[in-house]
Design brief:
globular, 6-stranded mixed sheet, Rossmann fold, 10 helices, binds adenosine-5'-diphosphate
Length: 249
């Protein structure tokens, strides 16, 4: 039997000044699933993530998180607190703080200002951060300034910050952009390691990377704000509708 749903978007529409960016979008994700979303520029991928995180509100439709929580009425902050974490394409780490401190700040962030002011870092926090450092392969960079990390390492740190925030659903926008081949492969390994424990939506263009993370999983193709098709990497790559969308008539 399939795992329960972590995300269910039904009949979602969003227009900007009369332009339909998202049209009757239906999309669901099961707990622990790693889903790659592809689609040409302007397909609505970023807008879709904006709608999940509350950055943009739909004109119509519902977006349910877990069994019952309707996300549309909630603020961006409330959605983060529920466990929805987003990583944008450009890494935004605190360059003047150490790798450890960046993770600690994310851990503190979810506790709220009052608790942060009156609480001290406990050994449980340190253990948790060390565990995350191991997961993101940055254990050896623990006390280095985040600003000294490579582009790829900053991306992994940012994924670690989402883990420190207790994100159950990770929304990751083009994680391999600007990375070397080695870093790209390691990023793929990291995402595969996180799948299962976390539910993940990855937006990606690089088809070599898509093959690495999506083989044996479902890929979604967005086009003109709707799901054009879903299926295995090979099935969507060979789908005449997808070929037409990418290559034009
Ligand atoms: P993708 O991420 O797949 O490239 P986007 O979600 O960024 O696509 O954009 C989908 C469409 O919606 C594009 O045509 C874009 O120009 C339009 N769009 C997105 N955001 C806005 C906005 N704030 N105002 C006007 N048009 C927008």
């Amino acid at each position: 039997m399939d795992n329960p749903l972590i995300l269910n978007a039904e009949g979602v529409n969003k227009s900007f000044a009369g332009f339909k960016a998202i049209t009757d979008l239906n999309f669901y994700l099961t707990e622990g699933e790693l889903r790659t979303v592809i689609g040409p520029n302007g397909a609505g991928k970023t807008t879709f993530l904006d709608l999940i995180t509350g950055r943009t509100k739909p004109d119509t439709g519902t977006i349910t998180f877990g069994a019952l929580t309707e996300l549309v009425p909630l603020s961006e902050h409330e959605i983060v607190r529920l466990g929805v974490g987003r990583k944008f394409q450009t890494p935004t780490v605190y360059t003047e703080h150490t790798v450890f401190e960046n993770l600690l700040l994310s851990l503190e962030g979810v506790r709220g200002v009052w608790k942060t002011l009156f609480s001290k870092t406990t050994s449980t926090d340190v253990d948790r951060i060390d565990e995350i450092l191991k997961t993101i392969n940055l254990g050896s960079r623990r006390t280095d300034l985040a600003g000294s990390l490579s582009h790829g390492q900053k991306q992994w740190l940012e994924i670690g910050m989402l883990l420190a925030q207790n994100s159950k659903l990770l929304l990751i926008d083009e994680p391999a952009a600007g990375m070397s081949d080695d870093e790209t492969a390691l990023t793929g390994e990291l995402l595969l390691k996180l799948a299962g424990k976390h539910s993940i939506i990855v937006i990606e263009h690089d088809m070599v990377f898509v093959k690495q993370i999506a083989t044996g999983r479902k890929v979604t193709v967005l086009h003109q704000g709707s799901v054009l098709c879903e299926g295995s990497v090979d099935a969507v790559q060979n789908d005449p509708r997808v070929i037409e969308v990418y290559l034009g008539r």
